[in-house]
Input
Amino acid sequence: MTKLEAVEAQQRFAEVLALVAEGQERVVIELDGQQVAAVISYADLKRLEALEEAKDLLDFQRAVAESDGESYSVEEVIAHYNKLNNTDFTIENIFND
Output
């Protein structure tokens, strides 16, 4: 893994992209010594997204297993979410956005 200060990463951006694309290198960007971002390959991003999706599915399966057979409609889930988060989602704007 390569670490670069933000200014240097900006000056060497084409080289950073080449490092990431060609060598599957990961580049950590630092600002005043603090790690603030990373440049990763598209393949790494897709693997990360797949892991997140697998975790979400596992969390869903656990929730279903712990629900003691209770089931809820999509509308009930959305209403409960809206109440907890003070939002106003609807089925239409969830599926159409």
Observations:
- The radius of gyration is 21 Å.
- The beta strands are 2-5, 27-31, 34-39.
- DSSP finds five helices and three strands in the chain.
- The first strand starts at residue 2 and ends at 5.
